[in-house]
Amino acid sequence: MSDQYLTAVLAEAEHVAKNYDQVAQSTESPTHEYLRYAVLRLLEGQSEAVAERFPQVDGVTVGYGRDKSMFDSWGSDVEWWETVSPREECTRFRLFYPDDRTTVPRVIIDVMTALGAWRVWDGDATACGSYDHHERREVHYLWPDGHPVEELLQERLQHADGTVAPDGGQTGDIRDRMVVAEQVTHQDALEPRTRRAVDEPMNVSLLAKGGRYEVASASGNRYDVDIIGKSCTCPDWQQRTPEGGCKHMRRVDYEIKQGRVPRPDGRLPTELDVRS
């Protein structure tokens, strides 16, 4: 494992945790979320925490999500899982790069190796997803929950200044709170169906840039919500397409507006975005 790249990944994840803790306020595994978002920022050139000499490759785009959730949504359309069957306990990274490169860019290999992920597929980019990847290539890596890198990040957060709590900076059970008080739209003002969607325990995370999110319900089911294309893989949407969206679409929309998950373009909202 490269110390240089491991240090860069941890430094960027620590930066995200301290400055953008909303990215993990809707998940029960904040260190996992900080680290995978740190990979996105590092490889897409968004990082503000690492030295300028960190190598960059123009045109790299990162998407990620739960491997089993991706399989449930796309398993009938693609053949990624022929070699390694879908794994509930793993994040699958999809990393896109220009097709004029004959091999996977070295910086991608080094960052993913430092993270502790393993390569499972590569090839021409497919049309599967929410945005266009013609004339590009992609490589996939699996990264398991509870990897020791998460423990290293937790130690950094605890030792930095003693103010970052294990749940991303807030206290109490993550299922019992919404967002920081000054950022919350008063729930009494919400439409009743949206208010019920907000009250119900769900975890929301970015699945792929372009507006695709993953929603994990309290029942253990996971659904793929395309907030731009206005669709959801849940039975309610597939069978009824209720006006205003199913509860999962409503929850994703609320989480985006409250700044708790990245925007559809993959970037974190600014304070002005949240207040507006």
TrEMBL record:
<keyword id="KW-0863">Zinc-finger</keyword>
<dbReference type="GO" id="GO:0008270">
    <property type="term" value="F:zinc ion binding"/>
</dbReference>
<dbReference type="InterPro" id="IPR007527">
    <property type="entry name" value="Znf_SWIM"/>
</dbReference>
<keyword id="KW-0862">Zinc</keyword>
<keyword id="KW-0479">Metal-binding</keyword>
<protein>
    <recommendedName>
        <fullName>SWIM-type domain-containing protein</fullName>
    </recommendedName>
</protein>
<feature type="domain" description="SWIM-type">
    <location>
        <begin position="223"/>
        <end position="257"/>
    </location>
</feature>
